[in-house]
Amino acid sequence: MVGNRWTTCGWAWVAALLLVGCGYGCVRTHAPVPVLTVPTNAVIFYVSPAGKDSWSGTLGAPNAARTDGPLATLAGARDAVRALKAKGPLTQPVVVWLRGGKYYVTDPVVFGPQDSGTEPCPITYAAFPRETPELIGGRRVTGFQPADKGQLAVLLPEVKDGTWSFRSLFVNGERQIRARYPNFTPGDPYRGGFLYAETLDGLPKGCKDAIGVKPDVFKPAWLSPGAELHIFQTGDCRAYMEILSLVSYDAGTGRLQLGGKEAVSLLLPGDRYTVQNVHEELDSPGEWYLNPQTGMLFYQPGPGFSSRAEVVAPTLGRMLDLQGDAKSKQPVSYLRFFGLTFRCTDWALGEGCAGYGMGSDGTIFGRSAIGCAVENCTFTAIGKHAVSFHDGEGNRVAGCDISHTGGGGVMLMNSARNTVTDNHIHHVGEAYKHTAGVILQGGGASENVVSHNAIHDTSRYGISMKGAGTANIIEFNFVQNTSLETYDTGSIEVTQGDRETLSGTKIRGNLVLDSVGYSSTYERPTFLSWGIYLDSFAGGYEVTDNVCARSCHGGIMLQGGKGNTVRNNIFVDGEKGQGHLTNYSNNWANEVVEGNIFAWHNSGSRGFACGKFGPDVLRMDRNLYGPPPGVEPKFGRGNSFAEWQALGFDQHGAIGDPRFVGPEHDDYRLKPDSPALAMGFKPLALSRAGLVGKRCTCKITPLWPEFWAVAEATAPAQGPKLGVPAPLRVAPVTKPPTIDGVAAPGEWPGTPVTMAQTPERQPISGAPANAYICYDDTTLYVAVTVPLKTPTAVHREGPQGVVDETEVVFRDASGAKPGPTFSVLGLVSGKHELSTYTNAPEALNRAVDQGARFAAQVGTNQWTGEWAIPLAAAGITMRPGLKLGFNLGTFRSETNEWLIWVGALASTLELDGGGMIVLE
After folding, report:
1. What's the number of domains the chain is made of?
2. Which ranges constitute the DSSP H helices of 528-636?
3. What phi, psi does 331 have (nearest 5°)?
4. Is the separation of the CB atoms in 82 and 94 below 8 Å?
5. Is this prediction's pTM over 0.90?
6. Which member of 78, 240, 435, 866 lies 3.0 to 4.6 Å from 783 by CB, making a disulfide possible if both were Cys?
7. How far apart are CA 629 and CA 726, in angstroms?
8. pLDDT tens per residue, range 187-197
9. Do both 297 and 223 map to the same domain?
């Protein structure tokens, strides 16, 4: 046993984060920004809210006669430096001091090649020592007048004229909530405050531009100008959110017609959504509504709001625009921004965020930038990424505090040899969800270093590499509470489409906690998340010396890449398993997983799940497994450890308590008597993970257990569990049924078996399915009929949990020890396949797959699937009295539910909780 099942982030021994009180989120308490060291020969300019751009900028404050003094704007300072450079090449560094105060920046400040510094003479724009200059990306809104229902209102003529539009509103520096239904739920921000798409007659399955809404839920005001539907689609694994317009509603069918460029994924029953920017829904403190036709802005003030409040409506998303010219080989170079605060910027629909797009813009955006730096800056309440470098080289983002962003934190797009280090990045993805704290994208994103960052509370990834280049280093980062709004994800994630490229990237020394993986259902509040996720064909990655604790499906996922090495890591407390090894598309070669520790407390978890592979493509050895006391761990497709070793894996592996120092405080150092040390495990330098500068003190609340607690607290009350039926006696037949997808009258003997339980052994909500079972000398025959109200709405394609399908699971239960488990799947389309997630030997699995026959047809009020399963192919001898562990499950998309013969309280594959049949 390695400690309590759920741990809290005490972790005071980590130098990266000193964990002292705060509740939900993270309160930033800063030490003073480090003072910039200025060369004695530097040319100095000053900018101040009290300045004028007509002055020289060589004085730090206005002179007594107010004839000269500091400049007033950053653009004015850029122009002063530009004028200086026009006199001749720089021979001295240049420093522009920004005095404390607020600078309302209504248009982007553009820096071109002519504004560049040089390596010996850089140009720095910096906060004056011990002062805080704030660059605010909009204008103050004043002149509010009382309106109905306690609201305030003001006319904005530019909005009415169509020359100004904004999607964000800030009061005293905090993002406010657009009027929405249902209302935002502060106490349950991720699971509360949503509606869910319905299944209604006449609505086709898998529609990209419509959902079902019951008439008693729909409100006519939702069709008002500017209203939007924000929906987390299922068609692409709930990886992102779409923002759609509301076009029309048909009360007869319940069809809500949608539109917009972001309508790219299948929308399915159960998808969660909100309706936003509707005046009639303006009913909660802090909400606002903008009428794009009349130009009226309405605001519902909260407690403490006064006429002195700063209300800002943004006018831009990109504040600083560094525009080099790659074609003419004229970069913008050696500009440095130090100690500045950027806040209150906007975002727009699209901008590269449709579908799997992650957007590319930033509050600071650099194209063809070389040797530029953003250091010790603060970005908060912004609409895009904080910093985005494209096609650049040798840039640096360090010591920054980045929070509450509409996009991500730092993006490096096709940019090489950059450094992203010592940044505190949190609460990112508040507008678009498919994003990360740090993003490396494109084949040119090579030889970058991402180190010592503290990244937490993200909608999706912590660190993401999308088709990234080679030889990147991801090291000593602290990552926690990721994937809070999406699933099929990882805290540190790689996606690579090329089957052959070996990256040479190193992922090492990172501490990764609580990769949640949002799922909308109460039955599985978390789903498809890993600590480190090498997706698609990510190859040539070296994953060493990391700790990954608490994720849904484990600490590591290796999908289909070649030449990956996973060594000397600690993977702890995955809910379903400690890892996932798939050999996707049979593409593996030279995979290595050795010398790791896998430890867990959940008795229902396994060491890892597996696809199809052998020792010829995976070397797996010297791993230590620490299951709960008294629990025999399962490996791969349910193998015991001895069976796993017999397959050629972990010949020098072992089972035992790894002896962590303090797992209840996420202290995974090893005690001197740990068996892992004797097996060659090298102690980890965990104190190096996270921030170096110690600019903040915060407590990060682990949200993994919160997701379970909320789900349990809000789930519909369940009655007593339904019982397990007595063993079912199955009759023989002399004339076998015809496998054609039609259960003809008199064709199937005996009384039908009713499939009316959920996986949790509760009553289903819709009509039950019926099953018929019989056998002859060689074959087991099974038919399942599934009632339907709208047969044309069945879903013929898609992932499990979307497509209509039925599963037959069986094993020989005649002996003292059950035989291997087999699972055959039949889809409503007539296709059939064999599940690879069982413990059946591959040769027998293949034989069953080749020998089985299946047919399906959709009738006027049901669909029927029929199987002929040759038990001899599974190594089972047909005979009267044969006992089979047995279960049936069908997914009916029309009612969005599983119909099970015997709810196994787990996957239907787990026959220990299933039923039994006996051949008469």
Report:
1. 4
2. none
3. -75, 165
4. no
5. no
6. 866
7. 32
8. 777 778 889 89
9. yes
